[in-house]
Protein: Glutamine--fructose-6-phosphate aminotransferase [isomerizing]
Amino acid sequence: GKGGYDHYMLKEIESQPESLSNTIRGRIDPDEPAVHLEDFPRGCFEDVTEVHFVACGTSYHAALYGARLLEEANVSVRASRASEFSGRIPNPDGTLVVPVTQSGETADTLGALRAAREAGARTLAVTNVIGSTIAREADEVLYIRAGPEIGVAATKTFSSQVVTLVLLAERLREEVEGAIAREDRREFLEALSVLPDQIEEVIRTSRAEALSEKYDDRGAYFFIGHALQHPVALEGALKFKEITYEHAEGFASGELKHGPLALVTPGTPIFALFDGKHDEKTHTNAKEAQARGAEIVAVTSSERTASFADDVLAIPDTHPDLVGLLANVQLQFVSYYTARLLGRPIDKPRNLAKSVTVE
Ligand code: F6R
Structure:
């Protein structure tokens, strides 16, 4: 049941400290420092030369996060929307195809998996559901261990997918030829191990409910971010449109001025995601929009970064590669409280199904 919550979505957002603890349990050792994925012993990724993610919707955003991490580690990587996957794999012997799917039943993702197998690539599914079709058909499976998710909008499974892909990326960068290992591995793994507690802190302190009341009824909502914050901006917008039925779009910060800025009018809310490392582009472009009347909500751990903004959603300090997970919880709350204010059927948005088994 909902355990005292009005909606499964809120229950699932607030269960992320627990679901993420399950995702990382036994898998990280900051002292060594090492990542242990029980089914993937040392050496098992030695033949991998490139990685290709295939996924849909929220899972595609998690895949983009994983892809960006690998890109920064100098690994050849792509992420395709499963429905757009061409089935072409130029180098099948060296390519690891990774379908990312909460349900393990999404028809588009299953189609991409089958095409990848047909092309002769090795396949490793990242999923939540044991025994699902994609778990059975992939060569190997890495489970995200988020527990059952009832709300149609994916929340805790997104964060567990991202963290699982963070772990997979750590393992891959040890073995893929030419990949760059982290210099700050211990600090990174320590930051990962306290992430569930920091999410608890965001849950305890979030001002998203009051903020949603202020920004109710604006007609259009934008979300911007650069680098690892870009997929989080896309995810923030998807969740928002899905459950509030309000128009929302996510953009790469630097793209705003290449077209979307024309949509900005006085009072347009823009949620700007900062990571403390790549903030210049987001800052410049958010200020540009602010000069055109946009109201900027900065999601950041830095008071200095936030000083220009109209509002702030504060998050605790963490490693720059993990900031998106904390920012995302704030955005989940913004979607939830806005939808609640608008009286939407939060757990079952119109026209949508939890698992999409048609192409
Ligand atoms: C959005 C959402 C969908 C799913 C997508 C893929 O909240 O839940 O966008 O992420 O339909 O589903 P899975 O992950 O089951 O393949």
Remarks:
- The longest strand covers residues 95-101.
- Residues 56-59, 101-103, 106, 109, 153-154, 238-239, 242, 355-356 surround fructose -6-phosphate (CB under 6 Å).
- The radius of gyration is 20 Å.
- The mean pLDDT is 97.
